[in-house]
Amino acid sequence: MPRKKSKKTAKVSLTMDLLGMDDPALINAITEDTRKCYRSEQPLKPQQIETVLHLARLMNTFVMAGTGFGKSRIPEMYAHLFAKTKDPVVLILNPLDTLGNNQVKEKLDQRFTAINLKKTNFTKTIADEILRAKYNFIYLSLKIFLNNEMFTDVYHNPKSQDHLILTVVDKAHMIYSWGLVANRKARQLMAHRRHQDRAIFWPSYGDLGRALMATQND
Questions:
Q1: For the DEAD/DEAH-box helicase domain, which residue ranges apply (predicted)?
Q2: What pTM did the predictor assign?
Q3: How far apart are CA 56 and CA 78, in angstroms?
Q4: Which 3 state secondary structure label does DSSP give 19?
Q5: Which spans in the chain are helix H?
Q6: Residue 198: is it exposed, middle or buried by C-beta count within 10 angstroms (0-12/13-18/19+)?
Q7: CA separation (Å) from 23 to 11, 30, 45, 98, 177?
Q8: Measured between alpha carbons, how far is 162 from 186 in angstroms, rounded to an integer?
Q9: What 8-state DSSP symbol labels residue 4?
Q10: Which residues of the chain have pLDDT under 50?
Q11: What's the pLDDT tens digit per position in 181-202?
């Protein structure tokens, strides 16, 4: 979910040169800008480039791809289009705290700043650092996103929103299950016997879409 630029703030956005390009020219710019960031034996996939194009056009985008496709590379490619001096921020929601650890290392390897936000490390100091856009990539669980009052204050702060360029929901297929739980329709579902569905479900997960859209500009 890319963030639109507000007319009332100094919202971080792509350059006018990029925004003024037609699709073929923008695809070429995306390819040339990001190709040098990855090893030659790991070439960019056309679907990755197409997805970044959609994000650059401020389209809400879904990616359905198998393990090994390189989905985690897509927000990296998008962030590479922004000037590092503008401190762009990508927020990535994971179903579990532990899933962010490896991805933080990947982002550090790409010379981004990153943090895996957990209940144990989310302090007032970290909250202030997020407001200053210290971290390009912020990984956090849905529990923190929806139920942590301090993070809610940070997320809705205009300073944070000015730097937020993209919000990613990892394992988005699980939102369907969370929504069913919120609506009390999931008691008979066999799906919750799978190992990835054994975590505690919180009723507010059914409100995820509303929370994500709360700061979207028209």
A1: 46-182
A2: 0.80
A3: 7
A4: helix
A5: 16-19, 23-35, 46-56, 73-80, 100-109, 124-131, 142-147, 149-156, 158-163, 174-182, 208-213
A6: exposed
A7: 23, 10, 17, 37, 36
A8: 38
A9: P
A10: 181-182, 186-203, 216, 218
A11: 445 554 444 444 443 444 444 4
